[in-house]
Amino acid sequence: MSAPIVVIGAGIVGVSTAIWLQRAGHRVVLLDKDAPGQAASFGNAGLLAGWAITPVTSPRLWRDAPPMILNPRSPLFIKWRQLPRLLPWFARFLRHTSDAETRRIVAAMDPLISDSVDQHRQLAAGTRAEGWIENSKMGFVYNRKRDFKNDAYMWALKAEYGLSPDVLEGPALRDAEPILSPQIEVMAVLSGWGHVTNPGGYITALADAFVAQGGQVVQAEVTAIHRADGTVREVITDQGPMPCKKLVVTAGAWSREMMQMLGLDVPLIAERGYHVLLEEPSMLPRHPMLMMNGKFGVNPMEMGLRCAGTVEYGDTSQTPSRKPLALLRRHIAQSFPKLTYKSTQDWMGFRPSTPDSLPLIGQIGTSGIYTGFGHQHVGLTAGPKTGRLVAQMIDEQPANQDMSGFDPARYLR
To answer: What is the chain's alpha carbon radius of gyration, rounded to the nearest angstrom?
Structure first.
């Protein structure tokens, strides 16, 4: 029997890759130090954000970032002790703030995520995971009209890709979402999207379906990757060696460690994100929302109301910072003043972020090693499509979109 294809990382991207490879007739081993569906795949906002085509690195960043960094009530945090380590990444990040670069990133992201709901439904078809996908609208909530007007650049870019919202104010806004504070002035609504009501359970169910069809899940930690004549041959783990004919790295924020085993230094940072789950809430929003002033997503899930967001640049320690969680709670109280709940759960995880906001999807030279990581805030959204694209690359099938923007070679030269 020939060696299998090994996929390192059992989050949404890895599980999706394993399933699409399996459906193409390959023998696949899914390898992770944790059980499937943990880390960022467990704690994300659950939004199928095909509308999230505009990057943070827009021309407005130079104006918006300094006051956000200095304002203790802003949703952007930096662990200042880590700044010397982060400065080279920030320098590369800021190179992408021009209009031309923003448009290049949007043009790459749109075909990757614009059909995200369909991609998830195709991936989950025939499994118990499909019950956790729901159709929904998406509301972008602004405290003040001027805040909405200040986002004109972003909305103009979205409109070029067919994303034009219905703008609600006054009584129409109150009727659409009674949960919102009466002080909130504007909600821009996009229709035709979706969300997942239990991300951790959803991905676990997909992994179970993969195993039921003959796939293998191995819980082990990778310690080395061996190549011979420039081609991958085996993965060394703390449970022993594992031969492989191809290797796919989908380890999220820990993918940089995998690349370092190959002698490659990919500029990937682990951006710390948070969520607060409100258990047994007294009311729920009718659809998911993105609170634009607090920069957090709100998603009604089967276990309660998940409020996920904030950005903290720092280290990969597992100790949460108090300030992002405190700010998130303050914004929740201000946005939903009539809401009560029984209890809360806090969570922190790591988003894998690249300087140009685009993931790495492709083969490293002719090594037989493929990448599928660096999705920043859209890992759940882009997971099924990324897995499908990687499977097509391995089978040497042409992609039905321009993949040059995701080429890992841009960071490996």
So the answer is: 21
